[in-house]
Design goal:
With 118 residues, the protein is mostly helical. It is 83% helix and 0% strand. It has one domain (2-111).
Length: 118
């Protein structure tokens, strides 16, 4: 049942993104930023954690989950460090994912040979 919930939630996020691409003039970059921002806003309103608890990876893996992770990190760091936590909490909480993205991106760049578009 967990897999079905994750699939449904992740699928709905994908459907929303595809509709935004097809029906609006928003660029993919603006849609991606909107997803992260939506995750932060929904987390601040207390709505994202119940969704993440229900859908599991279907809610934590997409970009909205990244926004939620940033918001949780900032909230925790502000409680522990005050104002300085607002500046460092998001990056600290997402450090593992950011490091993995940089490492694997570099690894793929070393292995693959780029080709120009034709």
């Amino acid at each position: 049942m967990e897999y079905l919930k994750a699939f449904l939630c992740g699928g709905i996020f994908c459907i929303i993104g595809q509709v935004l691409i097809d029906k609006t003039k928003l660029t993919p970059a603006k849609i991606l930023v909107s997803y992260v921002t939506a995750g932060v806003i929904l987390s601040a309103l207390g709505l994202y954690q119940p969704l993440a608890d229900w859908a599991g990876a279907g809610a934590t893996v997409p970009l909205t989950g990244f926004g939620h992770l940033l918001a949780k990190g900032v909230k925790k760091a502000v409680a522990e460090q005050g104002f300085l936590g607002a500046l460092t909490g998001g990056v600290t909480s997402a450090a593992g994912g950011i490091t993995a993205a940089i490492f694997f991106g570099f690894l793929v760049a070393l292995v693959c040979k780029p080709k120009p578009k034709s």
